[in-house]
Automatic annotation (TrEMBL), chain A:
The keyword tRNA processing does not apply. The keyword Membrane applies. It comes from Streptomyces sparsogenes DSM 40356. Keywords: Membrane, Transmembrane, Transmembrane helix. The chain crosses the membrane at residues 20-42, 54-77, 97-124, 144-166, 173-196, 216-237. This is ABC transporter permease. The lineage of its organism: Bacteria, Bacillati, Actinomycetota, Actinomycetes, Kitasatosporales.
Length: 242, 323
């Protein structure tokens, strides 16, 4: 079987489902839109030494990342709808090949849209911040924009892996949205909280990250979460009857 | 004598918890004929097909295509076309996109997708989303998917489901044509009348076990009793004479009587001896349904909890009058 052919098939699956394209693009719209809104209305009261204009540009990511989770979950869970997985696995019976190609395409789509999101948020946000804004040349700014793309891609792949384990959208979203979006705000600033997927992965968005994790090691921790989910999904797909 | 395109199932066994869905099943499906795959619901037909396709893992035994397991086939859609479930296409995709996703994975061209859409009568609906399709159209889409790779082996699970009468004739003709082209065609069904018109060979399952693997004609002959149908002006006299000869005549429509375990020769001779006028006398051809029900009734351990039907009470082609 040709890897290129399977990648082509997987890309066609995403392109041909309106819900997936909407989920993918709504991450871009939500992140940049919310960032633009808060940046334009920012009154400068927080502008102490603590104010991080770079991180402020990614405020919208709190909303955009939900779209990334949905995209990752739906890209996999849709395959199971109505027993459809049997059709796809009959066409590509090598499950590792099928799964690998799907995750590659899903991850690359998220990375491409995530990078656009990162740069649009940074540039738009800084422009709207006015005199408090910094240019793309400021320390950590470009790194944060690229990091935003990688963050969204890893989060998407993590979600896809979880969906492969649970084989449906409801359970996967029910697990991921609280884990990624609500757990770290609820738990506060504990030492363990820093290693949660969102908190660790968002280190890269700060101009000067604090705590034990640096920008890239933080993304590394998120990558480990994603790898664990991908591995669990691979085991589930390989073992279970379709 | 494994053929390049035969389906070989050998000692195949599958358990779901404590239920044995498929039990040491062994049979071979050969090319060039339509093989009907029969059995009541839950007999293991679909499970067997899924194991042949490498979707479900057998607990023991093997299922191969031309000697190779499905998972080892390169670009399997070019070897085997399968229809498993009409609901399997995502409702939000168009029919053409659904087929394109399948085709591209096996390096099948978009032109071939348009050909199968044409062949299955879906070309006018190609750009419509699958959720707007009727069950019959979904079924046609599933068959289009099975035909994509122009495969030498076809496995169709209940292909006539949801098809209108015209569609049923179409699928029947299609299967016969595919078999005549030398392909291997395995068709599961619970519609006996339909299978009788389509299949040349039968594989019959009951509770996961093989009950029969024989040509259609042999199957019907072996699992039915001779029976004659007679019309007379003196039914009462004929009946008592038959009873004296040890035969029972049952009324079967106005003026008609059927006689179990009797050939027309016997009845004709008997009627002539007693001077009973006979207006009609014919051999009553047993139907596949009747033979099938008799087989499952004979193997009482394989029948479900419902009582075994009495012979003659469930005949396909005769509208029996209540007496």
């Amino acid at each position: 079987m040709s890897v290129k052919a399977v990648l082509h098939s997987e890309w066609t699956k995403i392109r041909s489902l309106p819900s997936l394209m909407i989920a993918l693009l709504s991450g871009l719209v939500a992140t940049t839109g919310v960032t633009a809104l808060v940046s334009a209305t920012h009154d400068g009261k927080e502008s102490g030494a603590d104010f991080d204009p770079v991180f402020f540009s990614f405020f919208g990511l709190n909303f955009g990342q939900i779209a990334a989770i949905c995209f990752g979950v739906l890209a996999v869970a849709n395959e199971y709808a109505g027993g459809g997985i049997r059709v796809w696995l009959a066409a590509v019976p090598r499950r590792g090949l099928y799964y690998g190609c799907k995750l590659a395409v899903v991850g690359l789509c998220a990375l491409a849209v995530g990078l656009v999101t990162g740069f649009a948020s940074l540039l738009g946000g800084q422009a709207l911040l006015g005199e408090q804004g910094v240019g793309p040349g400021a320390p950590g700014a470009l790194r944060a924009a690229v990091g935003c793309g990688i963050y969204l891609a890893l989060l998407t792949v993590l979600s896809a892996g979880v969906a492969a384990v649970l084989r449906g959208p409801v359970g996967a979203l029910g697990l991921l949205v609280p884990l990624v979006c609500f757990l770290s705000p609820v738990l506060g600033d504990g030492p363990a909280t820093r290693f949660l997927p969102d908190r660790a992965g968002q280190q890269v968005l700060h101009a000067t990250p604090e705590g034990p994790l640096g920008p890239w090691t933080g993304l590394g921790v998120l990558a480990l979460w994603a790898a664990a989910a991908v591995w669990a999904g691979r085991l589930a797909l390989g073992r279970r009857d379709a | 004598m494994t053929s390049q395109t035969s389906i070989d199932v050998h000692q195949l066994t599958k358990d779901y918890g404590v239920v044995r869905a498929v039990d040491r099943l062994t049979f071979r499906v050969l090319p060039g004929r339509v093989t009907g795959f029969l059995g009541p619901n839950g007999a293991g037909k679909s499970t067997t097909m899924r194991m042949v396709l490498g979707l479900d893992r057998p607990d023991s035994g093997t299922a191969t295509l031309g000697g190779r397991p499905y998972r080892e086939l390169d670009e399997p859609l070019r070897h085997v076309g399968a229809l498993l479930d009409a609901g399997a296409a995502h409702g939000a995709r168009t029919a053409r996109d659904h087929l394109l996703c399948l085709a591209f994975s096996n390096r099948i061209t978009a032109a071939r997708v348009d050909t199968v859409l044409e062949e299955t009568g879906l070309a006018p609906a190609a750009e419509r989303r699958v959720r707007t399709f009727s069950l019959g159209m979904r079924q046609r889409l599933g068959i289009a998917a099975a035909l994509l790779g122009d495969p030498p082996v076809l496995m169709l699970d209940e292909p006539a489901n949801g098809l209108d009468p015209e569609g049923i004739v179409w699928i029947r003709t299609l299967m016969k044509r595919l078999a005549a082209q030398g392909r291997t065609v395995l068709v599961s069904s619970h519609l006996m009348a339909e299978t009788a018109l389509t299949a040349d060979h039968l594989v019959v399952l009951g509770r996961g076990r093989l009950l029969a693997d024989t040509p259609m004609e042999t199957f019907v002959r072996e699992h039915s009793r001779p029976r004659a149908r007679v019309r007379t002006t003196e039914p009462e006299r004929l009946r008592s004479e038959l009873a004296r000869a040890g035969l029972t005549a049952e009324p079967d429509g106005p003026d008609h009587w059927t006689v179990d375990r009797a050939a027309p020769d016997d009845i004709g001779a008997l009627a002539a001896r007693h001077g009973i006028p006979v207006l009609e006398l014919a051999e009553d051809k047993a139907s596949l349904e009747e033979a099938y029900l008799r087989l499952t009734a004979d193997r009482a351990e394989f029948t479900t909890s419902r009582p075994a039907p009495a012979p003659g009470s469930t005949r396909a082609n005769t509208a029996k009058q209540e007496v």
